[in-house]
Amino acid sequence: SDLYGNERANYFKLLKAYRLNPEAALKACSWGAFQILGMNYSIAGDYGNVKEFVAEVCTSERIQLQILRQFIGQSLSLHQAVQDKDWDKIAFHYNGPKYAENHYQIKLKDAYEKL
């Protein structure tokens, strides 16, 4: 049910892309439990480059949560939407204008209510 294929196939896609251009490959992938796009590494924390970001994301879930907090804090609109629990606005600012195609607002709300 993964939109992008199975994990094994995706890993090999990453390896192929990394061989061509390591920085571009890491920026093109989403990382961690919260799927922060590598190209957003500078928004997600004090990282000098995408490799530092990826290395940090891979250390622990606690670090991933800290990165998410930093990422949300960098956008006043996203931060306000989170505080208001406005699922559509959160999904828009986090996933982009086509968020509804993948029902991200519904998935966020359902996950929140489940927890």
Short description:
This protein is 62% helix and 3% strand. It is built from seven helices and two strands; from the N terminus they run ααββααααα. Helix 1 packs antiparallel against helix 2 (22-28).
Number of DSSP helices?
7
- Percentage of residues in DSSP E strands: under 5%
Shape, please? globular
Oligomer: single chain
The main pleated sheet reads as: 2 strands, antiparallel
| Structure class | mainly alpha
Unreliable sequence segments = none
Summarize model confidence as the mean pLDDT. Answer: 94
Q: What proportion of the residues is helical, as a percent range?
A: 55-70%
Tell me what the structure shows.
The protein has helices at 7-20, 22-28, 50-57, 61-73, 76-84, 87-95, 104-114, and strands at residues 30-31, 36-37. It is mainly α. It has a two-stranded antiparallel sheet with strand order 1-2. The chain starts with 6 loop residues before the first helix and ends with a helix. The model has no long low-confidence stretch (mean pLDDT 94). Helix 1 packs antiparallel against helix 2.
Keywords:
mainly alpha; single chain; 115 residues; 7 helices; two-stranded antiparallel sheet; globular
How are the secondary structure elements laid out?
Elements: H1 7-20, H2 22-28, E1 30-31, E2 36-37, H3 50-57, H4 61-73, H5 76-84, H6 87-95, H7 104-114
